[in-house]
Amino acid sequence: MEWLVSLAGAGLVMAALRDLFHTLWHPTRHGGLSRLVMTVLWRLARHLRVRGRVVGLVGPLAMVTVVGMWAVTIILGWAIIYWPHMPGAFTFTPGSKAAQQPALLDSVYLSLVTVATLGLGDVVPAEGWLRLVSPLEALIGFALLTATVSWVLEIYPALSRRRVLAIRLALLQRADPSAQQLDCTVGATLLESLATEVARVRIDFTQYAEAYYFHDGEDHSSLAATIGYAADLAHSGQTARRPDVRLTGDLLAGALEDLAAILDQRFLHTGGTPTEVFAAYAADHGRGLTPS
C-alpha cells in the first residue's frame, strides 16, 4: 500500500512535468492544463466584460497561475512520495520537533524545502532509494525556475513583434496609400515585408500560444483591430498591373490565410473564411476591425 501511494505521487509529478514540457519545449507547444487555465481566465474576463486595464492583466496572471499550478503539483507529488515512509525512513536533527508533527505536514515541509533547493538539513532521507531520488526534486525545482524565467523572456519578444506589425499597419492606414502608389517597386517591397512580418506572427501564435491571451491595449497597437487592413493591402497588390506587385500581394494574402487558419484552429473555432476569422479575433479581443 505504501508503494501505491508513492506511485500516485510520482504520477502527479510526471503529469506536471509533461504539461511543462508540452507548454514550453514541445514543437507544437500545446500544453493541456496550462492552455485550459489560460482559456478559462480569458473567457471569464471577457464574460465579465472587465475594463481594458484589467483585461491586460489576464495574460500575466494566467502565466503566474500556470507556474503556481506546476509548483504546487510538483510539491504535493513529492510530498505524497515521502508520506508513507515518514518518519521511519528519515533522520531528524537532534532536538528538532519535526518528528512530532503529522507525517503529511513533515512530508510537505521536506518537499517544499527540497524543491526550493534550500537544503536546511533538519530532515534527511535515511533509506538508500530516498537518498537517490530526493536530489531529483531539487533538480526539478531548479528546472522549474529556469523554465519560468525562459518563458517570460520568450513571450515578450513575441508580443513586441505582434504590436510592431499592428502599429505599422495603423501607420499605413493613416497614410492611406493609393492603388497607384502601391503599383511600383516600393509597393512590392512593402507588401513583401508585411508578408514576412505576418508569417513571423503566425509562427509566434504556434510556438507561443499563450501570447493570444495578452491584450494589446490601444487600437493602433492591437493586431486584432488592424489586421483587416493587411487584407485590403493584399487585395490591392493582387489587382496591380506590375507582376512583381501581384506576386507580393499573393504572398501577403497567403500569409494572412495561414495566420487565420492558426487562429481558427487553436483559438476561435469558427470554421469560416479568413475575413470571418479576423472579425472573430477582433471581437474576442474587444475590438472592431479597422474599416477599409
TrEMBL record:
Keywords of the record: Membrane, Transmembrane, Transmembrane helix
Any Pfam family matching the protein: Ion_trans_2
Transmembrane segments: 57-83, 138-159
Sequence ranges assigned to domain Potassium channel in this UniProt record: 80-152
Protein name: Potassium channel domain-containing protein
Organism: Streptomyces aurantiogriseus
